[in-house]
């Protein structure tokens, strides 16, 4: 079995939700998984030919009028099998979230409180956007246990992070 990056498997998983162009997969990713695993459109576009080469997807050239032609990708049975194998063998215990802001906080003595407060403001705005999106997704995913759990996780995480931001503001002020 040829191993792929997590990003490759993520693209394959998105493709298992139905045929799509690279652009459509980017839109799907920004709505469905970006709150827990951000992936760029360029990464998606880079993974699609690899999926085809591995036999995990097929591609169909679609001619369009008035807009550029597109390639529509479809997951294969082999792709589904590979994805299931990856999910079953995926080691989540070793996964740790990276928090770039925590680097700045850890070394706060080397920067200004004003800079850190500005960073907190930006992060808070992003978290509030995540909360809105995930509340919408929670309603949308009401009949899908796994997806509603990821939305609930993101909501809980964002709420915890917002609590921490309040504590950090108090400490820095």
From TrEMBL:
Residues 98-172 form the Transcription regulator PadR C-terminal domain. InterPro entries: Tscrpt_reg_PadR_C, Tscrpt_reg_PadR_N, WH-like_DNA-bd_sf, WH_DNA-bd_sf. Pfam families: PadR (PF03551), Vir_act_alpha_C (PF10400). SUPFAM superfamilies: Winged helix' DNA-binding domain. Residues 11-82 form the Transcription regulator PadR N-terminal domain. PANTHER family: TRANSCRIPTION REGULATOR, PADR-LIKE FAMILY (PTHR43252:SF2), TRANSCRIPTIONAL REGULATOR YQJI (PTHR43252). This is PadR family transcriptional regulator. It comes from Solihabitans fulvus. The lineage of its organism: Bacteria, Bacillati, Actinomycetota, Actinomycetes, Pseudonocardiales.
